[in-house]
Amino acid sequence: MLKEYKCPCCGGAIEFDSSIQAMKCPYCDTEFEMETLLAYDEELSGDRTSEFNWNVSPGKEWQEGENGSLYSYICNSCGGEIVGDETLGATHCPFCSNPVIMTGQFAGALKPDIVIPFKLDKKAAKEALKKHYMGKRLLPKSFKDENHIEEVKGVYVPFWLFDTDANARIRYKATRVRVWSDSTYRYTETSFFNVTREGSLGFEGVPVDGSTKMDDALMESVEPFNLSEAVDFQTAYLSGYLAHKYDVDENESIKRANERIQRSTEEAFAATVEGYTTVLPEASSVDLSEGRARYALYPLWILNTQWGGEKYIFAMNGQTGKFVGDLPMDKKAFKKWLFGIWGIASAAIFAIGCLISLIG
């Protein structure tokens, strides 16, 4: 079978041109020496698909009597299951603010391997929420004035932490453009390059939240957590706080971990391809090895409130203080602001028009 060569520049089929004794693309007129094409073809032969292999084994089981002081609470509204100690008493669901019902002693889940204890208290969370309001001119005054602060709750959110080594090979199509001119013409020369990067990266503690009640984007927004401050799990760390029971296990979380690891690897490799006008990835393979997962609890202050028929959830990293969350917008204030901007722009356009007519 005859091999068909593709143009590295435009992707079209190229053929031998006897008049120049070289390969030529009939679509973009680029000429190639045969040695160049053979080297490029050899480079393409190294492309392969990614392989994500994990050896994930079940986490630690609770020992007899270890979870005797923990109780399970179920929210009848959203179905969320949370865990607390015997001192918790009546509480509200941190995800939808409805009352929760204690259903009995906690059971049926793996024991966390590690926990990052809360470093910031409720007072810090309240202050962070106030600062989050500051400078937001389009925030409705009624939302700002209504006191939602007492609904802030400290929650340990379940995370699966993935450790692995990544071996990657990524190939890029790059260009370098040179422009010059003389008294008659303006010239543009585009040079095409095949760039390959290979190497290994180690990942430790890639987090994937183990709760369907927590939005992945929100959880990633409050990152990073400082894993060096994690300690072995003890039930005493839950005293005075809620702990959400995971409803996504480690095997179900692997897909999300693969996506995060592959994206981080590709970004790290792309940062090493410098000195080109454009860089586009053409082939990428990331192979994972020595993969394992740990079960962790991360500290979050959560506010979930309703206003204007909509739910708004805010979260603060209980370790670093990073605060995130969407705010409602005052539509009337936005219209005033928009018309104000349009009025300024119209006045500027009118002034420029008058100036041009005067000059003319």
Reported for the largest beta sheet, the result is:
12 strands, mixed
Average pLDDT taken over every residue: 77
Which regions are unreliable across 5 or more consecutive residues at pLDDT < 50? none
Number of helices, where a helix is a run of at least 4 consecutive DSSP H or I residues: 6
Helical residue percent band:
10-25%
Order of helices and strands: EEEHEEEEEHHEEHEEHEEEH
**What fraction of residues sit in β-strands?**
35-45%
The geometry reads as: elongated
The termini sit apart by 71 Å
Number of domains: 3
Tell how many strands the DSSP assignment holds. 15
Structural class: alpha+beta
Radius of gyration: 29 Å
What's a quick, concise take on this entry?
Helices cover 23% and strands 36% of the residues.
What does this structure look like?
The structure is a single chain. With 360 residues, the protein is α+β, with helices and mostly antiparallel strands. The protein folds into 3 domains: 1-45; 70-165 and 199-270 and 286-329, no CATH class; 332-360. The protein has 6 helices and 15 strands. The chain has helices spanning 34-44, 122-133, 141-145, 216-221, 250-270, 331-359; strands at residues 15-17, 22-24, 31-32, 51-52, 70-75, 81-85, 100-105, 114-115, 153-181, 186-209, 231-232, 242-244, 278-307, 310-317, 323-325. The strands form 2 sheets. Strands 4, 5, 6, 7, 8, 9, 10, 11, 12, 13, 14 and 15 form a 12-stranded mixed beta sheet that branches.
